[in-house]
Records
---
Amino acid sequence: MAITIERNETTPGSTSKVPSTIWGGPFILGLLIAVLGIVSLGATLVTSLVTAVFFGAMLTVAGVSEIVAAFRVRKGGGPFLLYLLGGVLSAVVGLFILVYPKAGLAALTLLLAGYFFASGLFHAITSVVDRYPRWGWDLFYGAVSIFLGIVVMAEWPISAVWLVGTMVGIGILFRGVALMAGSLTLRRAMRQVTT
């Protein structure tokens, strides 16, 4: 059996295809993810419902896994009841969200509103009390987060339609943009190395 080794020789006028495959794949993936983010922002209700169903499915799987882990831990003398009750709770909440995705979406929206409000309050108070360098930015973030929490709570049943889908769409869009920016930075760095 003979082994042949091919040499990749390039002439001065030609360029190698390897560098473009290194940064091109992540760029195209980022572009597709950014387009998916834009589509998600255009259909926030569908995105919200899909997110709620996905969240419910993940909670159900986690609950079942925790119940199985409870019986495995029981043999070793671990916290059986803690794992069992936690698993049952997760599975029941996940199944509830799967059966009633709109109610699950409303609950997720309330949780997000509470998170925005509490996080904003924490950032605002901490920045004013500590007055560390550039504390004004944290105060600004806190004020915006408090405002967003109040708006979501004030418009609550209606805000369930758009909030989760909008946040997921923005997250997907920025992830795609970050991938494209990272691949272009890699391309620039590779050009500097080759020159």
Note: The CA atoms of residues 136 and 194 lie 43 Å apart.
---
Amino acid sequence: MAIDLYLTPGSAPCRLVLLTAAALNIQLNLNHVDLRAGEQFSPDFLKLNPQHTVPTIVDQGFALWESRAISRYLVNKYGHGSTLYPEDPQSRALVDQRLDFDLGTLYPKFVDYFYPQVFGSAPADPEKLKKLHEVLGFLDIFLGDEKYAAGSDLTIADLSLVATVSTIDAAGISLDDFPNIHRWFELVKSTAPDYENANGKGIKAFKELVAQLKAKTEL
């Protein structure tokens, strides 16, 4: 039986779940939630997730939200022996650190810089861009001579980070000053299972949404 996934395709957190499921060859039943239409506030959805956020999964009656928690759960339940979330405590801690960096630092800095421009018609704030560049610099240092974000194997840390980095790239923010990120980004795009379907399609949806919102502000 397929796992139900409630999602918005352009969302980076939703794309993390799609990437993780693809890497584990898990079948998903996709349920699109139109956030702009308020579908997340429907009584049925609120019963599943009172925080009314996407992504949300339902696996045989078990509801769970927060993309990184979902990804850990999927590997723990369906990826026994997978290197996506290693069992060695130190290796797993490094994956967790990268996931927490994405959740608490990188993605919020991008949102803080870019979303006010798209959703609030605010001018670009150079100070916020400077802060985003600073945390991209941290990621560039983390990658260093490593093949992937947390070592020599593809993990859910890479899938989480690539969902964010591809969104930053799609927003037109240059990665040219971060050679390690650029190298790693190209590697993950070519090695993450079913990358184009799991992440590429969502990036196209994100670009289309941004174009629509920008067009409205220019009228």
Note: The chain has a mean pLDDT of 95.
---
Amino acid sequence: MRNVAPLLAMAVLISTGSNGWAQDSANIDIAYAEDGRYFTDDDIPTYNVTEDGRVDWLTYSGFRRYHSECHVCHGPEGEGSTYAPALKNSALDMDYYDFIDVVVNGRQRVNAAETSVMPAFGNNPNVMCYLDDIYVYLKARGTDAVPRGRPGSREDKSEVIREDENACLG
């Protein structure tokens, strides 16, 4: 059932415009795990990296999806570029639901001080079906729990994650 979290969050954002839930940048600790996914006390997806550097499936998948869709503007490993900000910081500094809102709906800030345009990815299944994966990966990068480069080892994909992925992609 966890795969519906981004869709429910999106519905709340669309219907209310905002939610007021704040995510403290230190809100990374695992409170519980379910079917290969890890969550904080606030039911926010988070990462699991073992002492030997092994990452959970979502973090590994997030690395792959980030580098297929996001790195062109935001730079490799979420480090940012001259064109767009470092998303590894955004995953820590932004509320989880605000992060989803920006990815789904895009954002445009044009004024005397800045010109910033983030396109909407709400219709892109390579982003939407893996939104939590991307978020978790960026969160792990933002805390330096995952170094730059492809993660060396990973957990296996759980059957539930596989089923959710198939259902999302059709």
Note: The chain has one domain: 2-15+25-169.
